[in-house]
Amino acid sequence: MPTHFESLLSSLDVSTVLPPEIQFGQALIVDLSRTRPMWQAVGDGNPDEWVLNQMRAIGATMSIGRYNEQRPIYENTEQFEGTPDRDLHIGLDLGVMPGTPLTTPVDATVFSLADHQHQGDYGPTVILRHQEKGLTFFTLYGHLAADTLNKINVGQTLVKGELFGWVGDKSENGGWAPHLHFQIIQDLGEWKDDYPGVTYSNQAEVVLENCPDPNLIIRRDDL
């Protein structure tokens, strides 16, 4: 049964985060979980190239990395060094071209701006604060273009559908293939300009309740 927070998110009148033709267009859903055949198909090759080739084959304009998925891809990054059990992804990864514009799905205040430049981290990061139907919550946008941090200011008000930034490239986004990490957070706790996008599987019950499925806002029918 949906929580009160999930029910509220489902009831919101939202705008798109990405351009509509991308957000609702043809997409390749990529299963990055530990046991999936993709890893055998990639072998010793480049997984980023493998994804791009699969996208071209179906005419996709976006790839999607799933929410609530255990992944092996973090183990060899500086950001996740020494935490092999931290592998549960709690956002949506929306793989698009660098420079793709981002707009706020509902009215917002810019809560924080940061540039987390450890290899494997978020790179330029924005957290927006929302107040809807008596409830406060946050959305996090990771792996952005550095110019985003000059576009907006902490405390600035954004109206639904307003441009606030762009997706970054690999040289500035923490070292990842270009994509948006999009995450919903009910309670930031003591976090200020950051929040984990990957957690420990033994914390799943609590964390997934605090960070529900981002598709409650993205609203694709195939997720």
Protein architecture, described:
The chain is an alpha+beta fold. The protein has a single domain, classed as Glucose Permease (Domain IIA) (Distorted Sandwich). The protein is 20% helix and 28% strand. It is built from seven helices and 13 strands. The strands form three sheets. An eight-stranded mixed β-sheet has the order 1-2-5-12-9-8-7-10, covered by helices on one side. The longest helix has 12 residues, at 47-58.
Quick description:
The chain is of the alpha+beta class. It has helices at 4-11, 20-23, 38-42, 47-58, 148-151, 204-210, 215-218; strands at residues 27-30, 62-65, 69-70, 86-89, 92-95, 101-103, 108-116, 123-132, 135-142, 157-158, 163-166, 180-185, 198-200.
Spatial extent as radius of gyration: 17 Å
First CA to last CA: what distance? 18 Å
**Biggest sheet layout:** 8 strands, mixed
Which consecutive residue ranges, at least 5 long each, have pLDDT under 50?
A: none
Compressed to H and E, one letter per element, the order equals HHEHHEEEEEEEEHEEEEHH
Based on Cα principal axes, name the global outline: globular
Organism: Veronia nyctiphanis
Protein name: Peptidase M23
InterPro entries: Cell_wall_metabolism_enzyme, Dup_hybrid_motif, M23ase_b-sheet_dom
GO molecular function, one term: metalloendopeptidase activity
Q: Could you give the topology of this structure?
A:
Blueprint: H1 4-11, H2 20-23, E1 27-30, H3 38-42, H4 47-58, E2 62-65, E3 69-70, E4 86-89, E5 92-95, E6 101-103, E7 108-116, E8 123-132, E9 135-142, H5 148-151, E10 157-158, E11 163-166, E12 180-185, E13 198-200, H6 204-210, H7 215-218
